[in-house]
Design a protein that fits this description.
Blueprint lengths: L2 E5 L2 E3 L5 E8 L6 E8 L6 E7 L2 E4 L7 E6 L4 E6 L8 E9 L14 E2 L3 E5 L2
Parallel strand pairs: 2-11
Antiparallel strand pairs: 1-3, 3-8, 4-5, 4-9, 5-6, 7-8, 9-10, 9-11
């Protein structure tokens, strides 16, 4: 069983930056692919970014603004978010999948474990 805890959310002005963290415990972190998803009010949860070993994958809406990375020594995955827009406002979730296929990482149903989420609000 893998336990995921997100942190780093908050209120930021448009154009600002935030870095989200997701700390994992209970598994061999380096063997898991990790993903970030988000859910805005009244909308379905959507893919944001994923990382498997050093391979990364991004939604078109965040490409060039967000960067996913991982530190296997700290069992943590990060999401650096720059040039934030009001449309980025959502609850952000991290997820883990062991033995992942990169092409499947956009699909939220593919993941085995989820965190509780952290709120990101972009507003002036």
């Amino acid at each position: 069983q893998v336990h995921l805890v997100e942190s780093g959310g908050g209120l930021v002005q448009p154009g600002g930056s935030l870095r989200l963290s997701c700390a994992a415990s209970g598994g061999t972190f380096s063997t898991y692919a990790m993903g970030w998803f988000r859910q805005a009010p009244g909308k379905e949860r959507e893919f944001v970014a994923a990382i498997r070993r050093s391979d990364t994958h991004y939604a078109d809406s965040v490409k060039g603004r967000f960067t996913i990375s991982r530190d296997n020594a700290k069992n943590t995955v990060y999401l650096q978010m720059n040039s934030l827009e009001p449309g980025d406002t959502a609850v952000y979730y991290c997820a883990a999948k062991r033995g992942a296929i990169l092409s499947a990482l956009r699909n939220q149903n593919y993941y085995d474990y989820w965190g509780q989420g952290t709120q990101v609000t972009v507003s002036s």
